[in-house]
Amino acid sequence: MPLLETPFAQLDLIRQPEQQNEPLQAFDAADEYLLNYLASEQPASSTRVLVLNDSFGALAISLLGKVEVSSSGDSFLGFIGLEKNLLRNGQAFDAIRPIPASEPLVGPFDRVLIRVPKTL
After folding, report:
1. Do the beta carbons of residue 63 and residue 51 sit within 8 Å?
2. For an engineered disulfide with 39, which of 7, 18, 44, 65 has Cβ 3.0 to 4.6 Å away?
3. Residue 1 pLDDT
4. In this structure, is residue 14 part of a structural domain?
């Protein structure tokens, strides 16, 4: 599987559910664009970033340890993917606590990264 390489991290990510010979990646050009854009702003480590609808943790895990990151979404597979990809990349499974979409978000946030669905 290809690695996600950004200014913040180099990650080995998998999709959920896992399948042998999976032709699809757990990240895409939108993830890379958002991370490169944020890196160009040179955020301080105290910057509070909210990630919404992060498919398999590509955004949140990349930012872990670089900024204060919170992640929220409504996908159960995304939640499982986040946990598995944290472990796969040497992080504790609870390094990022996903906030269910049904819970209120506690801000303020300095930046919000939103993965807009392909269909609305």
Report:
1. yes
2. 7
3. 66
4. no
Which residue range is the domain that position 68 belongs to?
Answer: 45-115
Write out the two tokens for 7.
């200014």
Residue 32 lies in a domain: no
- Contact by Cβ (8 Å): 13, 31: no
At CA 62, angle to CA 22 and CA 104, rounded to 5? Answer: 100
Regions of the chain short of the pLDDT cut 50: none
CATH number at residue 111: 3.40.50.150
Among the listed residues 31, 17, 2, 24, the one whose alpha carbon sits nearest the alpha carbon of residue 84: 17
* Residue 120 domain-assigned (yes or no): no
pTM above 0.85, yes or no: yes
Q: Which residues pair with 32 in a beta bridge?
A: none
